[in-house]
Design brief:
Elements lengths: L7 E7 L3 H12 L4 E6 L6 E3 L2 E3 L10 E2 H11 L2 H4 L2 H14 L5 E5 L2 E5 L3 H11 L4 H24 L11 H7 L10 H5 L4 H13 L10 H10 L4 E2 L4 H14 L3 E5 L2 E7 L3 E6 L2 E12 L3 H4 L8 H7 L2 E15 L10 E5 L11 E6 L12 E11 L8 H15 L7 E5 L1 H6 L8 E5 L13 E3 L2 E3 L9 H18 L3
Helix pairs in contact: 1-11, 1-16, 6-10
């Protein structure tokens, strides 16, 4: 292979998200020079006073599915994830036990419901909390189960992606001419139910991904409710997965450079792209460019030539920015039965922002790598209207969050070691921060994705916006697909 100048690569990945890291690692493993540009000073985790916090945008980042881990291990040859025969047997045992454990909780004004991957266990929960609607709810779940089984059967017949039930629309027409999936949306299906149950379903739908909508297609709702909580691995999260893949990237020859901000991207005829930077004279050149940062934060980099980025950026927009608050708390204040992951709404009549909806993640009990003995690290993700971010003081915003937390944790104020908003103040404004809840501005076909992976010739985009309803699985699928598309150009 001809030696290239240090600032000239075959591919540049702009951003440090999982999808771009997956794509870059696969390309690097296939002997293609890859440069990963990540933001200088951006820290994905926060350590303070013996505690360690990791912000998140959905529950799929905190609990990875066994099947997803297994498949990405096979594709990327990750020995730590594939494991020995003994480790694989242990994984089966963990998988069986996980069906008996509630992956997370949904907390409503009048109820607290554990969500199990085994439907029979979940039945006991909603029969207890919604006794007057029990028969209707059972029929609702039976219908969703039938839709999901039909979808899985179709995927098996057509040898679809092991990661995602993706189809191009032309293939859908070819394979499913009889339209097996109902055209209804979830809001239509839930109309006869109580407000409390409707919210119970809605909160589950947004907890595994980054899309807010009251019009989820019923087939997508079935996929999320029945598939995403299945076979979760409590011992593996996004942070551990990224660490392992990053090691593979570096071992295979991938390079990392830290930058402040890209000033401009130029397409150079016959040479690919050049990237210039603010307050830095360096210029990098590459044949392929993979964007891996929130679309609304990088759509202007190509100027007038970036019409595709602007076009797709107008079809999915951030509705809420997720603001992390970190608390060190004493373990004895945690209510009996509270799970390590939960989503809670305080008032059904109010919007989701200003502390009304919270995503909570507690560090595992006894894990002294996350919190001192007898303590727990509590990460709280609240929602703020993106239009209010620049005008809102976080100190004032904290009041609504704490009111909600005092409701969830009686006597919490007597058991708090500290409350920290500093990481949020420093990191949320950065271009690498990707924890948003999005809304679609037009209709979309969920099996095709919302934002295409290929934007134009040799320009790719991998992020939460491609498949915002599928969380971490969508990012992994996007990264693998982009790498495969680039590799095909060399074959």
């Amino acid at each position: 292979m001809m030696k290239r100048p240090r600032n000239e690569q075959e591919a540049i990945v702009l951003g440090s998200g999982l999808g771009g890291l997956v794509a870059g690692t696969l390309l690097s493993k296939n002997n293609h020079p890859v440069l990963l540009l990540r933001e200088k000073g951006y820290q994905p985790s926060y350590a303070i006073k013996g505690y360690r916090f990791v912000p998140f945008s959905n529950f799929s980042e905190k609990r990875l599915r066994h099947s997803l881990l297994k498949k990405i291990s096979q594709v990327m040859n990750l020995p730590l994830l594939a494991g020995t025969q003994e480790e694989r047997e242990r994984a089966k045992i963990i998988s069986g036990k996980s069906k008996q454990r509630a992956p997370f909780q949904v907390v409503l004004p009048k109820s607290r419901i554990d969500i199990f991957s085994q439907l029979s266990l979940s039945q006991n929960e909603w029969k207890r909390e919604f006794p007057k609607e029990a028969v209707q709810i059972e029929e609702f779940y039976d219908e969703l189960d039938q839709i999901q089984r039909l979808s899985q059967k179709a995927n098996e017949k057509k040898n679809s992606s092991p990661f995602f039930p993706l189809r191009q629309r032309s293939f859908l027409k070819k394979y499913f001419p009889f339209k097996p999936f109902p055209n209804e949306t979830i809001d239509q299906k839930l109309f006869p139910f109580s407000r409390e149950f409707r919210e119970f379903i809605q909160l589950q739908l947004i907890s595994w991904g980054n899309l807010y909508s009251d019009r989820f297609p019923i087939s997508l709702a079935a996929h999320i409710l029945f598939d995403e909580a299945n076979e979760l691995n409590p011992d593996f999260d996004l942070e551990k997965l990224e660490k392992e893949i990053l090691n593979q990237f570096l071992q295979s020859g991938g390079r990392i450079e830290e930058i402040d901000r890209v000033k401009k991207v130029n397409r150079v005829w016959g040479k690919g792209f050049t990237l210039s930077f603010e307050e830095d004279p360096k210029v990098f050149q590459s044949q392929f460019l993979i964007f891996n940062s929130p679309l609304h934060r990088i759509s202007s980099l190509l100027g007038k030539k970036g019409k595709e980025l602007l076009k797709w950026g107008s079809k999915i927009k951030p509705l809420y920015v997720m603001i992390p608050l970190f608390l060190g708390i004493r373990e004895k204040v945690i209510p009996v039965g509270m799970k390590d992951l939960l989503i809670s709404i305080l008032d059904l009549e109010k919007p989701y922002d200003d502390g009304n909806v919270l995503f909570l993640s507690l560090s595992p009990k006894g894990d002294e790598t996350r919190a001192p003995e007898g303590r727990r690290a509590l990460t709280v993700q609240s929602l703020m209207d993106v239009r209010k971010w620049e005008q809102t003081l976080l100190v004032d915003y904290q009041q609504g969050i704490m009111k909600h937390l005092y409701h969830l944790f009686p006597f919490l104020e007597d058991y708090i070691e500290f409350v920290d908003f500093q990481w949020a103040s420093d990191h949320v404004p950065r271009w690498s921060y990707s924890n948003f809840l999005y809304e679609a501005t037009s209709n979309f076909y969920w099996r095709e994705g919302m934002v295409p992976l290929s934007m134009s010739k040799n320009i790719y985009f991998v992020g939460k916006e491609n498949f915002p309803y599928w969380g971490l699985g969508g990012e992994i699928f996007g990264g693998l697909t982009v790498a495969q598309q680039v590799l095909k150009k060399y074959s």
